[in-house]
Amino acid sequence: MSDVKPTQVDEVFLDRLLGLESSKIGYYADVKQKIQELEAANLGLRTKKSELQAVFDSIGDALVIYDNNGLVQHRNHVSPRFFPQETLVGKSCRALFHPDQMSALKACPVGQALNGKSVQLSFSSTRIDGKNRFYDVSATPIEDPNGQNRALVFIRDVTNRRNQELQLVQSEKMSSIGVLAAGVAHEINNPLTSIAGYAEALVRRFRDDTDLVADRRLEDFPHYLNVIVREAYRCKGIIDSLLSFSRKSDGHIDSVDINQLLGEVVELVCLRARHENIRIDETLQADLPLVVGDAAALRQVFMNLVMNALQAIEGGGLVTISTCRQEAEVVIRVADSGKGIASDLIEQIWNPFFTTKDVGAGSGLGLAVSYNIVKTHQGEIEVDSREGNGSTFTVRLPACQKS
């Protein structure tokens, strides 16, 4: 070592430091290249992650990923709208799909997906506001790098579609009832015609036969017969109104007598009104102009308004129906002494499926349908209501112009 010069020692040390003595300079170059490749890969992964997150958040349905223990791992931005607490990260699937059961993974969609099975099902949930919502669920297994399954769950709110389906079923049911009622009405009309005809014949006989009039035993018979005739024709009037109401609208446009339509509606609901101790007062302008429109559709509007008025009253009350002409319009008002409508709900009553009635008492379509019919007739419908002070619905329709 004594023969080695200092300069040579420095070179040996430098070679050892740089790894040149073991020819490792190529190795470090490879490492640097690998680091650059990893950085490029990481950048690509971050880009892909951003893209996937954008796709994840752009899905219009709630999307939740559960880990292999049935706990929420990820959720998109829609999930908190449907289930803000039940889909929090770390929450068990039990919170959403089986809150009343301590352990039911095998019975819930997440449990089945974790077992490798794709499932689709529907369920309903009552929200904090008390409204029931319907959802379709699709759960699919996804395998993680460790070979274990996670669950990808899509949740779609199908409440509006379900309500439409239920309304369609109800409409079909009412259509069938209408056909049945029309058939029954025709069958009743025939014997009523015979009853009225024979009663009128007997009335004429009493009027023309002096011997019958002189018989003291029969002195009450003309009065009884007149009552039979009057009530028979009253029944026929109710049946005719029922037949008119049961006819489907064919879109036929003609001159319509609003007072006559209102009379038919009142004829149909007066029995219910008497049973519930509700008085119906009519103030109809005698020389009311005709309107141009679909009689069946307008009849539906006024039936909806009068029925709503009756349903708004509890324990007896008053419904007032009035008509008048104001300039070039026919104005119809239906007022009730019922419970009224809260101010924060006034703007919502025209929305389809919105109802303030108890479950099963109404579909929430009556006012929405009435609104559309009135608009189709180039008219206006509005409401004036205060909670506890009743409601007044006003319909304005263009009057026929005299030629």
Word description of this protein:
Helix content is 47%, strand content 21%. The chain folds into 4 domains: 6-55; 59-157, PAS domain (Beta-Lactamase, 2-Layer Sandwich), CATH 3.30.450.20; 159-198 and 225-248; 249-403, Heat Shock Protein 90, CATH 3.30.565. Helix 8 packs across helix 9 and helix 10 runs antiparallel to helix 11 (366-376). The model is unreliable at 358-363 (pLDDT under 50). The longest helix has 50 residues, at 159-208. A 5-stranded antiparallel β-sheet has the order 2-1-5-4-3. It has 403 residues and is α+β, with helices and mostly antiparallel strands. It contains 11 helices and 12 strands.
Total beta strands: 12
Low-confidence stretches: 358-363
Instruction: Output the number of helix runs.
Output: 11
How does CATH name the architecture of the largest domain?
2-Layer Sandwich
Radius of gyration: 39 Å
Q: What is the spatial order of strands in the main beta sheet?
A: 2-1-5-4-3
